[in-house]
């Protein structure tokens, strides 16, 4: 009896272990969905719910055509672009040399195994590490498009000899391959996996700011789909540059739940920026397609590509919309006179800061209120539908950064999507600097010494 | 006559009296099972409730382990249902709720109710020869007070605004200010209510245990003859009585912080002091560790004595060491706060008292070994679990030496080494002791015997897998892996050790599945187990003189202490057997 | 059968624990388990760890061996009763007194190491402390370096996010504040950890020993150490990690100047 039970137990043990090896959990597959608002938009235009659902499905299909899915992402390349050799799938063209060097350095580590294999002349493959089946699975599907599509030597350098073509060892190919790996910051599919790991909990799969952990946050996570990002160095309401997104990713947004992701490698950060851009462009296209189609009643490929092209043109002009700032003044050099002048301007009729920020800068001015249809006092809403909450300047926490340049931009150019307007053109450069000086002087309690001290 | 015996003698004189066995009126099953005031029914209610809560707590642990081993992976089987928002992987705020509720459920709704509630209720009256608890209705109240707690802790999962995410220690101000813990708004308030109800339940039970033991012992059963199980439970009851009011008032203060912004613990609400909560919490929760382990030590001592066919070695030392542990347990709470920044002199005090507590623990270990020494050991499942308890308790206790040493604790505090340390005590210790207790007293509870073969298989797998789960956690902690980490890959240098995390998770899953052997064993025994008779182990303590299972009023004939629970040998063996011929059933039992 | 299996299991468990406590520096997975320490007094901490490990290992093997021995012996006997001994005052005294002596020695060693650690930052010839403000909040670190006024926690501080640059061979003093909940500054290589409790200043002092840094550390190079938050601070707790860069004196100055200039950048 004992021996029999023992055998059964041993068998069970082995069977469980064996079954276990085939059951390694893997990340769930993310799928893009179309926003519920899309269907509502069609219904608002008078379509029956069933027809609206069909139209929303058409939008979804169009978006899939244009952007693929998180498992197989990629921008559709328009015919007009092909002539110009423009391909938004390769966003790295926008990187400057210093950034390239940083990415290459990171990738030297990331792709060490591949580089080693390339150097030795072996076929490019990732060795399967012990016990890390999940890692393998993650890497495999991240790499397979690369391995299949791009390590075709002819892709690397048209003139380089292909291995096997001649009897000589093809050092050229190896060098080229090495350079290729080093400059290969995450492909979109890999960035999607990074996004799924680090960002999706708050920002949601489609970047709507509706991730399961994000819905309770105050302030809410950014909804990328409007294409408007508050903390950028472009004029308010315009599309951000790559560097703006990267800066938020690296510095975090102080005073919110958005942390700094500086701990990721430069290459990974660049990849995440790419992915955020894809989500933003996709969301914006969705809104535009919906708006256009709601008027016409149906979605056509032409309409979709038209919206797609228009969305892209907004992103393309970002570089020209830089919110210029003059050479910065050292905050230490602000004088009490600057501050006093700033205080006067703050309360004055030209800048009208106190209407929203309140007399003491607590963000409690009267202009944030409006009357709704029932005559009740409600807060004015921002672009994303959240109640406006002007900054309490005495906290000393500035979401967009507390450098003089940041504050200068906020004051001079306003904040996109919010009720914070661009400053009156009547304000001179010195006036804005005086306001910056005053705002910086307002920050209070956080810099006061803390109570009590702990013995060392 | 030693001081203990003198005290015992004095205390027993006035407890000698004739006891009346109440005639329980026959009643319907609702009255019999739901409204029962019978200590045995309540004990079994605690046992079943605790077991179900243990399953829930273990499920939470497994979900967490999946996330730790394969961050972002879809949780098998339950993931798609529980976390639809992320396609089946655990979101970070839910992860926080998972470890919070795992800790809370396992401490307040599994280990404490099982050890003090189930074993305390079932064994105390039987072991001291009483017909029931001193206050049967209070006893029922103690069980039913657990239920609001259970309801609140289960509701906390889906509370509006999210489950509690401040850890089972609920450090302020993370736990007091909703904005600091998005995703745990009402959940944290539910958590407070749950803990308060669980505490009330224990408090009521503890009063009952103490009164019962002081006033209702059988004639001749002096304190010096009390079984160590009863000693352990009594000392745990004293600890609960002294420490629980502190936790309860702390919880009340925290509730005021949360609801009225009273600002006891939150600096941003006036002059609140976060460390005050830590002091209040640990003033209860460190002694609570001994609530979880002293009764277990008692169970193990009794099991060992019975199955080694030998009196417990150094009875007086065993009792004194338990009392010493309990006493010292009240002045060591600060070692949970070494890194909070305290006055170096205070730190030194807590350091010394913590190191000191190793002494009585060591005395117990050596006395257990001496109890086995020269015994005629029957390696029953109960005995295996008891010996397993000692082996793992040693590992868990010794790793405490590092944590007590402040220079090393500065590194190890809040790393996985701490997780390994207390799981060795609570799982390797308390849980194994409880399994041993169930294998030992199951025949008394239902009158049938569990299979020793299945019990042996259950033990071997559990023992091996327990070590596979918790031993590598020491290493992870050494490498700097902190507790409550959502994704170990984010921690510097942890990627290389990730296979170890996967190994731990696999072992934990197997450990969970392995408990099916126990389930099978219990079901088989309930359906077709061999009858056990009154005293299958031929033990000496009083509970074995009652029928199995005992009827209302427990004993069918007056009992007296006789030579005590550990009177093996001493020429008494034959007398006892002659007096109770029905005990000779199954004397070959347990030769697995 | 269990007569031999059970002792074997107990011995195996103790043996595995023994091996694991005695080998915390090298696990054979290709990674050193303990990150190398880099502070003055760090060696003393590690040595104390090893001494405790040795004591633990001895007691583990002793007790497991005893358990195995008594089980093998006791389980082989025929049915009947065990020995009638119920206690021994001499034995109780021995196994109370011997561990007491060992623990007393351990306590003395701990006091020594505590003194070494307490004295390390104030040793002579190390110069004035390098003061950095640590601003901890959900879920990132901001480090504040003295600006023109030479003091931290003032408006002109130079601020970095999740990146802490420190000098080697000079005392470092961190003045830590939390904005919201309790955080804990934990750098494994520094062998230290200190909770940052909101509402008060917490100070932490240590010296990074240049000789402990990787070979060839000179003024122009840097070494990187990990930094974690060790106290649960909300659901992003595990992601609240940063990086410590240990720089030589010149490199640190250059780095600080560059950070200071960044404040005036307009991009």
Question: How would you describe the overall organization of this protein?
Answer:
The complex is a heterotrimer of chains A (456), B (592) and C (267). With 456 residues, chain A is mainly alpha-helical. Helices cover 49% and strands 2% of the residues of chain A. Chain A has 18 helices and four strands. In chain A, the strands form two sheets. In chain A, strands 1-2 form a two-stranded antiparallel sheet. Chain A has a two-stranded antiparallel sheet with strand order 3-4. The radius of gyration of chain A is 27 Å and the shape is globular. Chain B has 592 residues and is mostly helical. Chain B has helices at 3-13, 29-34, 39-69, 79-82, 92-127, 136-157, 185-215, 228-260, 274-307, 315-329, 344-356, 358-372, 381-404, 406-412, 416-446, 452-478, 498-514, 516-528, 573-579. Chain C has 267 residues and is α+β, with helices and mostly antiparallel strands. Helix content of chain C is 37%, strand content 23%. Chain C has four helices and ten strands, in the order αααββββββββββα. In chain C, strands 3-2-1-5-8 form a five-stranded mixed beta sheet. A five-stranded mixed beta sheet of chain C has the order 4-10-9-6-7. In chain C, strand 1 (130-137) and strand 2 (140-145) form a beta hairpin. Classes of the chains: A mainly alpha (456), B mainly alpha (592), C alpha+beta (267). Chains in contact: A-B, A-C, B-C. Chains B and C meet through helix 5, helix 10, helix 11, helix 12 and helix 13 of B and helix 1, helix 2, helix 3, strand 7 and strand 9 of C.
Keywords:
heterotrimer, A: 456 residues, mainly alpha, two-stranded antiparallel ribbon, 4 strands, disordered C terminus, B: 592 residues, 64% helix, globular
Low-confidence stretches of chain A: 123-172, 447-456
Radius of gyration of chain A: 27 Å
Greatest contact between two chains: B-C, 114 and 100 residues
**Quick one: how many beta strands of chain B?**
0
Query: What Rg of chain B do the Cα atoms give?
Result: 24 Å
User: How are strands sequenced across the largest beta sheet of chain A?
Assistant: 1-2
Helix content of chain A: 40-55%
The pLDDT mean of chain B sits at 88
Shape of chain B: globular
End-to-end distance of chain A: 65 Å
Number of helices of chain A: 18
Order of helices and strands of chain B: HHHHHHHHHHHHHHHHHHH
The span between the termini of chain B is: 41 Å
- Assembly state (oligomeric): heterotrimer
Tell the overall outline of chain A: globular
Q: Pairing-aware structural class of the strands and helices of chain A?
A: mainly alpha
Low-confidence stretches of chain B: 11-23, 574-592
**In which range does the helix fraction of chain B lie?**
55-70%
